[in-house]
Write a structure and sequence with these properties.
Helix content is 34%, strand content 19%. It is of the alpha/beta class. It is elongated, with a radius of gyration of 19 Å.
Length: 255
């Protein structure tokens, strides 16, 4: 096990054929993704095992893997170790539905900055969110830096990684959850919605925000009014504003 070199991210990597194989088999060190030089030959069994375990596999050129393990014999394979195991999507939804308050979920599309994800998790825990859902591909994973940025909130938050956010939204809607996307271009003010029932808030990440296909699946879209020259808020700031409007409407503030 080694820290990623040349970065102040406390994310850790596991490398080498044997170490990765044992980690995948044991399952007690959750891997958020596997990086390999190829998917055939000596890597074939690892790739197959990773896919069975639901670990995304990425083919990377040797210089990229060399940079991650500059002083170690990585043998062409690196596993990114998560700070916490993910929950299953169905378990998150079931947990939300079992609580006294109506389900409150957060869906993040494209949040790739660990500080932003950590801040959103911290705000979500403070606001009583029942679970956070992340896409498998367009998201930073649950790294040690995310855990640190969450100020301990990650330990108390159910976080699931989903393959397809659009399908996840469809499933939530079938379960009676209203799904609202937050986008600057929406004509509707975020305070105009009723958040007292089962709701899921969709927030976009840095740069591109919520993808068009995901946005189309939402029941409605809203914006947070701004009077300055900046076009949009940081996702963690937007999450705080949106979630505490839910808290305000539900009257669930605890002293």
């Amino acid at each position: 096990m080694a820290r990623v070199d040349g970065s102040d991210d406390e994310n850790c990597v596991l490398y080498g054929l044997h170490a990765i194989r044992e980690a995948l088999r044991a399952g007690n060190r959750p891997l958020q993704r596997l990086l390999v030089l190829r998917t055939d030959g000596q890597f074939a069994d690892l790739v197959s095992l990773a896919r069975v375990k639901g670990v995304p596999v990425h083919v990377e050129p040797r210089p990229a893997i060399d940079r991650m393990v500059p002083r170690g014999n990585h043998q062409g394979v690196v596993g990114i170790v998560a700070a916490k195991a993910y929950s299953e999507e169905d378990d998150v939804v079931a947990f939300a539905k079992s609580q006294q308050d109506p389900p409150l979920l957060v869906l993040l599309d494209g949040v790739e900055d660990p500080y932003n994800l950590g801040a959103v998790l911290r705000t979500s825990e403070a606001a009583g969110v029942h679970g956070v859902l992340l896409p498998e591909r367009r998201s930073v994973g649950l790294t040690a830096l995310v855990a640190k940025a969450s100020a301990g909130a990650l330990d108390h938050m159910h976080v699931a990684r989903v393959r397809n956010l659009s399908r996840t939204i469809e499933g939530l809607q079938q379960a009676g959850v209203w799904v609202y996307g937050f986008v600057p271009a929406s004509p509707k003010n975020y305070t105009s919605l009723d958040y007292r029932g089962p709701v899921a808030l969709v927030l976009g990440g840095e740069g591109k925000g919520i993808r068009h296909g995901v946005l189309e699946k939402c029941d409605d879209t809203v914006h947070i009014p701004m009077s300055g020259h900046v076009a949009s808020l940081n996702v963690s700031a937007a999450a705080a504003i949106a979630l505490f409007e839910v808290v305000r409407q539900r009257g669930t503030l605890r002293r």
